[in-house]
Amino acid sequence: xxxxxxxxxxxxLLPASILVAGVIIAGSVIYSTGLKNYKSQNINAGxxxxxxxxxxxxxxxxxxxxxxxxxxxxxxIIEFGDYQCPYCAKFxxxxxxxxxxxxxxxxxAKMIYKELAFLGSESEGAALAVSCAREQxxxxxxxDAIFETEWSEVEKVMAGALKSNENNGxxxxxxxxxxxxxxxxxxxxxxxxxxxKKYKNxxxxxxxKANKLMNGRISTPTLFINGQMxxxxxxxxxxxxxxxxxx
Length: 247
What we know:
The structure is a single chain. The protein has helices at about 5-10, 35-40, 55-60, 85-105, 120-135, 140-160, 175-180, 185-195, 200-215, 235-245; strands spanning about 50-55, 75-80, 110-115, 220-225, 230. The protein is α+β, with helices and mostly antiparallel strands and about 250 residues long. The protein has a single domain, classed as 3-Layer(aba) Sandwich (Glutaredoxin). It has a five-stranded mixed beta sheet with strand order 1-5-4-2-3, sandwiched between helices. Strand 4 (about 220-225) and strand 5 form a beta hairpin. The N and C termini lie far apart (about 35 Å).
C-alpha cells in the first residue's frame, strides 16, 4: 500500500475495480485489481504520472470518438472510465470542471471519453446508451447527465443513506429513455440503437485495449495525456499537460 505522503498526493483519485468497503468515507475505499503491484511498479506518485505505460495517439483515438473541445488542440486528454465507478464520478465533479475551464475552453486541450464498462450490467447499459447518444450529437450531454446522477448516488453512499451506487437499479432503460427525451433526442431511434446493443463490440474493444495498456490491472479513472498514462490530482494532471504545451 502507499505511504501517507503518497496518499496525500492522491487522496481520492485511486484505482478502481473491486469494492473493498461498503461506503466511501474520507477516501478510505479503494477499488483495484492487483492494486499493490500496480502502484508500486507503475505509478510515480511524486509526479502523478506513469513513466512506463505509454501509447501512441493512433492506438487510442478512433474516427467515431466524440471530441470535447477544439479538435486541433495540441494536447489530447483521454479518460478511460466506468459510469458506476465512484472515483470517476468524483473526478467528473471535482477535477473535470477545472480541466474544461482551464484547458478545453481555452483550446489548449481536447478530451475524449472511452467507456470502460467493467462493474456490471448497468455499466454496460450506460456505455451503450451514451454511445447511442453519440449518433445524435449528444454524447457529452448524455455522459454528463449520467455522471451527475451517479455523483448524487455517491453522496448518498458517503452519507450512509445508500449501501452502494453500483448496480442498484438506477441506470436502467427508463432512465436512459427519459434522459434522451430531456435532451430532445429522437427517442425511438435511440431506443432502437440501445435495445440492439449496437455498440457492444466497440465497448468490448475499449475494454480489451485498456486491459492491455494497464497490464491486466483495470483501473478507473485512468487518463492518457498525449499517450502518457496518469492517475493523480488536478495539479498532477495540469503539470503533465503544461509539459506537453511547452514542447
